[in-house]
Amino acid sequence: MREAAANPWARLGAVAVAFAVLPFLMPGGSLELNPVQWHRWPLHAGFIDLATTVLVFALFALGFNLLFGHTGELSFGHAMFFALGAYATALYTKGFDVMLWGLHLQHDAGTNALVALVLAVGIAALWGFGLARLIVPRSSGIYYSMITMAFAQVIYFITFHWSDLTGGEDGIQAISRPSLPGLPADWLADPSGTHFFIFAAAVTFVAVVAYSWILYSPFGTVLHAIRENKQRSRFIGYDVDKFRVNAFVISTIFPAVGGWLWVYFQQSINPDAGSIDYSGRVVMMSLLGGIGSFVGPMLGSFVYWDLQNSVSQVTKYWPAAIGAVFVLFVLIAPSGIVGAFDDLRRYGAAEALRRWVSPRERLKTDLSEELPESGPH
Amino acid sequence: MLHQLSDQFFNGITLGMLYILVALGLNIILGLMGVINFSHGSFFMLGAYVAYSLAPHVGFWPSILLAALIIGLFGMLFESVLIRPLYRRLPEYTLLLTFGTALIFQEFVRRVWGDDAVRYPALPDYLSGSVTFGSYQFPVYKDVFLVAITVVILAVVWLLINRTNIGVIIRAGTRDAEMVKILGINMPLMFTLVFGIGSFMAGLAGALAAPIYAIIPNLASQWIILTFVIVIVGGIGSFWGAVVGGLIIGVLSSLMELVFPPAVDVTGFIIMGVILLVRPRGLFGVEGLFE
Question: Out of A277, A331, A375, whose CB is closest to B97?
Fold first, then answer.
C-alpha cells in the first residue's frame, strides 16, 4: 500500500541500528519488575530481557503481517505456529517418552540448536501447509479469521491436555540454552542477558533480511495484487489460491523461529504461547505499528511491550488499557503509527488531524479500498 | 452405562441450548450486518455476572430478564458508538475492534467481581429438584426449564424473522442492505435494533447459564471461539444452522466425555474440520455470503 521499495539497503541499515540501540530504549522495570539500574554495565538484565522480548515478538509479527498487511488476510490464530515452534524446540531439547495408542514415542534429549530450528520450522510449516490447503480455497474475509482462530484453539488444547508429552498446564521447564559453535559452551547462558540479546538480534536481523527479500520479490508483488483485488489478479492469470497458500506457509516460518528463540530465552514454555491471547497480542502489535508497512510490526512490538511494561506497574488490569489504546487506533488511525506519520508528512498536521477524525476520509487510509459486500454503502 | 450415556446426552442438550442462544444471536448480527462481534462472548459473560448480582435483590425471574434486557440495551449503545463508524470499512476491522473491547470487558469483570469464580445463589424450589422417570432422574432446571425457555425464545425469534415486517426487512437486508436502504428503510436503526436483539440473546444465555456453571472472567474467551465454531458448522447467517450446530456440538462434546475425556475440548473443532471438508459453507450455509 505504502512505501515502494525505495532503498532496501537503507531500510535494513536502519533496522540494524534500531536493534543495536533497542536495549537503551526500554523503560525501567521488567517482566520481573526489577528496579532500573542505568549505571550498570553490561546492561541490566531487566531491560535487556525486555528488549529481547521485543525482538522475538517482532519476528512473530513479521509473519502475521505478511498475511494481513501484504496479502490482506487476517489470521487470528498465528500463535499456533509460535507454540508449535516453541514446543518442537522444547521437546527436542528435553526429550520425551510417551505412549500414543499403543505406539511408543521416544526421544532422548538433544543439544543441537540447528536441528531444533529445522524441527520447529518444519513442523509449523507442515501444519500450516495442511491447514492452508484446507481453509484457503474454502474461505476468505472474516470467515477465514474465524476459522484460523478456531484451529489455533486445537493446538492450544492439545498442548493443554496432552500432559504426558507437553506437561499440560505447567508446560515444560528448565530447558537449557544451546551452545553456539566457536563460542564457550555457556556463552548464551550469560546471566546479564546481553549475549542472548545479541543472539536474538542476529537471528531477527537475518529474518528481516529474508522478509525484505520475499516482500520485494515478484512473489511479494503478486501478494499485494491479491490484497488489492483478488478477482482481477485471477483474471490476469495468477493462481490466486496457490499464492495464498504459499503466503500462509511462509508466514508460519517467522512465528516458528520466534517460538524457537522464545523457548531458549525463557527456558520454559506453557500452553499460553498458543492461546488466543498471544494471537491477539500479535494482531494488536501489528496494527499499532502499522499493518502493511515494513517496519510497522517491529515498531508495534516495541510500543506494545513498552506500554504493557509501563502500565502493568501501575495496575494489574493493564490489558484493559492496552485494549482501549487498540480500540482507539482501530477507530481513528487504522494504519497505525507508521500510517499516522505518513499522513503527517503528506498532508501537514491540520489536514492529517482532520482526516483522522473524519470517517469519510478515513476510508482512504484503509488496508484496501474494497468495500464490504453487505452493510450500508 | 446407559445411565451415564443418558446423563451425558442430557448434559449435552443443556449445553446445546445455551450454545444455540449465543450462536443465534451472533448469527443474526452476522447475517444482517456482515460484522463479527468478538465481544459477543463478553456479553454472555456479563449477562451471567449481572444476573448473579441482581438475583439476591430481585429474585430469580426478574434477575434473568433484567440481565438480558440490560445487556441488550448495552449492545445497542455499543453498536451505535463503536461499531457504526466502522461500517464503511472492511468487516475485519469490526473483529479487531471488538477484540479490543473484549479485553476491556474482561478486566472490568475482574475489577468488579474479582478473579475467582462466583456462585449463583440458590434456585427457587420448583426449579431445583429433579423429575424421576423410571430409574432416570432429570434435574428440572437443566433438562426441563432450560429446554423449554430456549424453545420459546427460538419460536419468538423465528416468528419475528419470518412473520413480521421487521423480519422482512432483516431478511431483505441480509440479501442486499443497500437496496433496502434505497427503498426508504432506516437501516442504521435496524442495525442497532438487530444488534440489540443479538446481544439480548447472549445476555439471556449468560443469565441462564449462571446457576449451573462457574462464573469466571475467562468465560468470554472460552465461549466466543466455540460460538464461532458453531456458526461455521451451522452456516453463517442461518437460523437453523445455529440451532442444529449448537445441538450437534453440545451433544457430541458431552458424549466425548465417555469415549475419550481429554478430547472433549477439541470435539467441536474436529466437527468443524470435517464440515469444512464436505460442506465449506456449513450445514445450512449459503454460497457466496461474506466472501
Answer: A331
